[in-house]
Amino acid sequence: MSAEAAPSRSRKPVEYEVTVDRVRMDTHDTATLFLDFGETPPDYKAGQFINIDPHQFPALGRLSAFLQEQKGRKEPQRSYSMASAPHERHVAITVKDEEFIPGLTRYPPLLSPLLVHGRLTGARIKVLGFMGPYVLPEDVEQRTGHVVHLVAGSGAVPNFGILKDALHRNLKPRHTVLMSNKTWGDVLYREELESLERQYPDRVRLVHTLTRELDESRFSASVRKGRIHQALLEELIPDRDTCLVYACGPAITPWDRRKALETRTPATPRFMETVLGHLHALGIEDKRIRRETYG
Ligand SMILES: Cc1cc2nc3c(=O)[nH]c(=O)nc-3n(C[C@H](O)[C@H](O)[C@H](O)COP(=O)(O)OP(=O)(O)OC[C@H]3O[C@@H](n4cnc5c(N)ncnc54)[C@H](O)[C@@H]3O)c2cc1C
């Protein structure tokens, strides 16, 4: 996942210098950084993101210079969705340490390894915020009675913030959260989500799909084997004319597209392309689908 998203036009993003209050390892490759913005609570909406400029970290100076030379362009800021909701004390971002697979991945990742493994607790860092239209509409209660969250891997981040915010504000729509992961150990916010489901049994339904889980005892009605498929969406979304879908996860990257053009082979659809295809096949209109792509 690699991209710098364009700031939304609604409010000009502001640069903040914040303290990393603590770093929590969530899975083997993913960590949540809790950011302290000081006395004044920052003004943002659940589901939005911040940008972090890798050039501020001296530890990345040489790698950044090398990558810039290789790629022939300045390394852009990286975007990170907020895992937190505005009522929470800290702004939280959850970052996945991008893989580098020799022979498959073109360059090593720049910023995510430092954010995840760099022991940044106590560090002062600069962030630019807050941006992005991946938020609930003001009149969500008039628009729908059912918010469907379709997320893969770290795509769970903004939806977790949106869900917590909606429940905190006691908004009426119920929520179905469908999460796609490789294994049970990869599921983000598992305990917090289960606790929300217990706390709001009429408002929150959690369903997992696991593509590479070897422990068969994990599977049940709420933990399905394989990928998200059309029949599952049909089962979970009976109200296809009135639901509001928030889909977030990896999509075909610009580099995949370039490679596809060069090799004249179509780029392999990723989570977002696949899921959007299913939603359209089920007749869910585009205006009912909000999307955040990390590709
Ligand atoms: C709106 C938004 C929200 C996001 N939220 C999150 C989030 O909550 N959590 C999260 O973990 N991530 C999130 N991301 C992704 C994040 O912004 C970074 O892209 C991610 O952390 C990887 O950054 P990196 O510097 O570690 O890796 P990068 O240096 O960006 O590299 C990532 C991959 O891209 C490839 N690549 C980079 N440049 C090129 C090139 N020129 N040609 C070919 N291949 C190239 C590399 O080989 C590598 O495989 C979000 C992205 C967006 C747009």
UniProtKB/TrEMBL annotation:
<keyword id="KW-0285">Flavoprotein</keyword>
<keyword id="KW-0001">2Fe-2S</keyword>
<keyword id="KW-0479">Metal-binding</keyword>
<keyword id="KW-0560">Oxidoreductase</keyword>
<dbReference type="InterPro" id="IPR017927">
    <property type="entry name" value="FAD-bd_FR_type"/>
</dbReference>
<protein>
    <submittedName>
        <fullName>NAD-dependent oxidoreductase</fullName>
    </submittedName>
</protein>
<dbReference type="InterPro" id="IPR001433">
    <property type="entry name" value="OxRdtase_FAD/NAD-bd"/>
</dbReference>
<keyword id="KW-0408">Iron</keyword>
<dbReference type="GO" id="GO:0016491">
    <property type="term" value="F:oxidoreductase activity"/>
</dbReference>
<dbReference type="InterPro" id="IPR039261">
    <property type="entry name" value="FNR_nucleotide-bd"/>
</dbReference>
<dbReference type="GO" id="GO:0046872">
    <property type="term" value="F:metal ion binding"/>
</dbReference>
<dbReference type="InterPro" id="IPR017938">
    <property type="entry name" value="Riboflavin_synthase-like_b-brl"/>
</dbReference>
<dbReference type="GO" id="GO:0051537">
    <property type="term" value="F:2 iron, 2 sulfur cluster binding"/>
</dbReference>
<keyword id="KW-0274">FAD</keyword>
<feature type="domain" description="FAD-binding FR-type">
    <location>
        <begin position="13"/>
        <end position="137"/>
    </location>
</feature>
<dbReference type="InterPro" id="IPR001709">
    <property type="entry name" value="Flavoprot_Pyr_Nucl_cyt_Rdtase"/>
</dbReference>
<dbReference type="Pfam" id="PF00175">
    <property type="entry name" value="NAD_binding_1"/>
</dbReference>
<dbReference type="InterPro" id="IPR050415">
    <property type="entry name" value="MRET"/>
</dbReference>
<keyword id="KW-0411">Iron-sulfur</keyword>
